[in-house]
Amino acid sequence: MIHTRGRGLRSSFPKDRAAGADAADPNAAVRWYAVYTVPQNEKSAVRHLSLRSIESFLPTYDTMRVWKNRQRVHLALPLFPSYLFVRIGSRERGKVLSAPGVLRIVGNGREPLPVPDAMIDFLRSDICANKIEPYRELVVGQKVRICSGAMRGLEGVLVRKNNNLRFVLTVDLINQHAAVEIGAENLEPVIG
Description:
By secondary structure, this protein is mostly beta strands. It has helices at 42-51, 93-97, 117-124; strands at 2-4, 8-11, 31-37, 55-66, 72-78, 83-88, 102-105, 114-115, 132-134, 143-146, 155-161, 164-171, 176-181, 187-189. Strand 10 and strand 11 (155-161) form a beta hairpin.
């Protein structure tokens, strides 16, 4: 079963999976990983992962498109095209890789690299609800840190769009960016 919560699609699976079989093996810690999918198959991959009891999260944003017949359609599109996130232990990698639409788990060539929990929490947070969008331009500007709230300590780049401050979150592991509107009072410069 798939639920929409915040700004993303996620499979329904208990959050506290660490108490399961992987908890006995300290090397099998349950962590978030980025998964590279077949282009335009992210939602299908989430459904297949859900059928395999794999917790997944597909960050999305809302946009409006106008078709050739001038009909306006609101769509929920993937924030990071061809990428989604899974929360797994080392024993579940095979289940993920065998899911239709999944090409690979993002890593350094030898092993998958985990995505920080704070990044996933930020993408699921109320800060991102209705205000997040892809940011595909070259990221320039001052590096800043969120200084208050649940996402305290998360770093990104500050840009301006239509006289509003935008916090650009960069997911280095998959070389993708997302821009979120945020108040200047919640940011502090990163020195050094």
